[in-house]
Fold this sequence. Notes:
This protein is mainly alpha-helical and about 200 residues long. The protein has helices at about 1-30, 35-40, 45-55, 55-80, 85-100, 105-115, 125-140, 150-170, 175-190.
Amino acid sequence: MVTTTRAAKMAETRAKLIAAGRKAFAEKGYSGASMDDLTADVGLTRGALYHNFGDKKGLMAAVVDEIDTVMATRAHDAGQKAGGGWKGLLAEGAAYIEMALQPEVQRIVLLDGPAVLGDPSQWPSQNRCLQATIATLQDLAAEKAIKPVDIEAIARLLNGVALNAALWVAASETPEATLPKVVAAFECLASGVLITPESRI
């Protein structure tokens, strides 16, 4: 019982710190967020942050993982709504790119995230996205719906295109005007792997 209570308390503390981090990083950016923004506002100490995340960068990694995981879930839901398969894969990519219009996603995941945490392709959340894309492509390959190319290579390239498209939208001075151009280009590039009547000739 004591162990369960302690685990619950630790989980609650982590959740409070991540929530405080999301708020502070979204409003002030990583460099502008002070330790008080990350701890005092939720009634916690710096020691709690150090114990749970090591340092400010560790908290940033947890915040990015949480937001990026939610983004992946929403993209997956968009893919399922589109019917799964190839259409679903395109819908997932488009949905992920479109989330670059959200201020929290722009600032934390797409602008500060790479600057603070390095190459996004190495993030745990991006690896989970990669595995999901690989699974979808394997199903499409089994149905002979895509060309016989290496599945992991295509998955990495498709995910990379979607991520870089989102990064471009986030950094654009006119993100809403940039978005449709980016989504159209993503779909054009992605469609190169699809088997069409013409490609069978």
